């Protein structure tokens, strides 16, 4: 009976298997959940979802299946920028206004009108009574009042209309395609740690055992040695200042946590792009600069190079000598980038900017070309890919 | 259905947690619990055991733990030693089979609760090596050629801190619950369970301060439930009046005994800086 639900989940990218689905049916048969929808939601989530990163997808699939109508708008939603829909204001409507809204036509008509209006409308809109936006009285949008309205991007209930648990989308920040934040930074680092150490810890030290047994007059004396750890060496280049200010916090977290995860980790700062100098202490960046050549001489080819930066700047800062915003650089940033990638053939660039924006930022495009397309978003899945590319 | 878990006098269980536990108990499948450190993952197993009046077996996993150790170990080294000493024990191999936690749980007279704590600490193959045992609740001892079968399917609670991804095949056999950080009303219930005599005003002020600290951007380690409980214990022990916690008093903006909440020098430093800024703006 729940087979369509099963397929709906798979459509939304929740990795459900038949075993898990059968477990859910078994649980239902054993009357673990009563008839309430909420209990069914909790039960099916415990049975079918095995990773908190997928909770958000599950919530959406659940809402879509049990409301039926909402997924029609997934495609439309995708085209509406999220901040556009963010709550900006709320106002309470008079009884009179509410009555007026009631007069609008049925469901089909609403959808039709929505499509039409979406085409007409090109900007963010708020208030008013026709355009789609927030806090208005149009039947489309959120935080407004229209009894027959269509909900777009609303995260709470107004006017006490039933708010469903799965509608709250509380696990949105656990999904793995969102930007790294305080919550998932730890997981990100654990992923990094995968290549810092792996494997079983103890090995029999045969020579030591023979030696020690002989000294022990033939009584067996086993000796163990810890297994040699796979020591990965990492160079971390972090962009600070300028357009990175938004991302500095995330980068700092990544970096400060990364320091404890690696045995061989060196970090350097740069501003916007790499030139002839780097520095280690951001507060003393104008005093204690280290020539990039020196860094290239100091650390061997086996170091893996990780850049963290948004690569968002004027293209001149990359391709022109003297393009740097901070000083006169004799050679273009691109030249320096080529030198770096030749010195350390294993490199990636982690970019906190959302991937959708990459296409529209020329400097990101140039940097990606310079890096042979080894640029990854600073998300959990991006980090995974980056680590794969580093191997 | 025979038993239902509904939290205990010492443990506040949310509705979704109760559902996950009851599903796992009813169907006899392992329950995998994840969540922020300090949200009571390990305690859950203890409370299930207490609520259902079952014996609890704890198996704490370390990075060196092997799946086999949970079943049994053949202590070949001491057998070799004994053979050199001429001990008659050496002729029976069963003398050198050391039972693991899983075996002990399988032998229990009543249905036990088995806690497999921090499974993600172990080697990546560890969960895979336990698939059959968790599925069929039986295993074979090669040395003595015997089958060990569970008398009662144990209630298995597995905790993970997400340090490693667990294999799909393993996950498919478990129920899963993610313990969310409690919202303020749940937190109030949790504190009430631990400190029933706490004054209302102190509780309200302490919670406000606690959530304020948690919301501070850039904290390396956010304080969690267990830290809050420690802190309240200190507040009560030191007899701190609720007024001392009030945030609108600029001189007291740093909560007293903050050492219980912030465990990291950088966090304390950051906090002091923010308070300092706040005070300057206030002027």
Give a short synopsis of this structure.
By secondary structure, chain A is α/β, with parallel strands linked by helices. Helix content of chain A is 41%, strand content 11%.
Oligomer: heterodimer
Largest sheet of chain A: 5 strands, parallel
The helical percent of chain A reads 40-55%
Report how far apart the termini of chain B are: 64 Å
Task: Please explain how this structure is put together.
The complex is a heterodimer of chains A (391) and B (283). In chain A, helix 1 (3-11) crosses helix 4, helix 9 packs across helix 11 (245-261) and helix 9 runs parallel beside helix 17. Chain A is flat. By secondary structure, chain A is of the alpha/beta class. Chain A contains 17 helices and eleven strands. A five-stranded parallel beta sheet of chain A has the order 6-5-9-10-11, with helices on one face. Chain A starts with a helix and ends with a helix. The longest helix of chain A has 17 residues, at 245-261. Chain B has 283 residues and is of the alpha/beta class. Chain B has twelve helices and nine strands. Chain B has helices spanning 15-27, 41-52, 67-71, 76-85, 101-107, 126-129, 131-136, 168-172, 184-194, 200-215, 225-238, 265-282; strands spanning 31-35, 56-60, 72-74, 97-99, 113-117, 138-141, 146-149, 155-160, 175-179. In chain B, the strands form three sheets. A five-stranded parallel beta sheet of chain B has the order 2-5-8-1-9, sandwiched between helices. Chain B has a two-stranded antiparallel sheet with strand order 3-4. In chain B, a hairpin with a 4-residue loop joins strand 6 and strand 7. The longest helix of chain B is centred in the C-terminal third of the chain and has 18 residues, at 265-282. The N and C termini of chain B lie far apart (64 Å). Chain A binds chain B through residues 15, 17, 19-20, 23, 26-27, 30-33, 38-39, 42-43, 45-47, 49-52, 55, 170-171, 174, 182, 186-187, 190, 193-194, 198-202, 218-220, 222, 249, 252-253, 256-257, and chain B through 1, 15-16, 19-20, 22-24, 26-27, 29, 31-32, 34, 63-64, 77, 80-81, 84, 123-124, 162-164, 166, 168, 171-178, 180, 217-220, 222, 266.
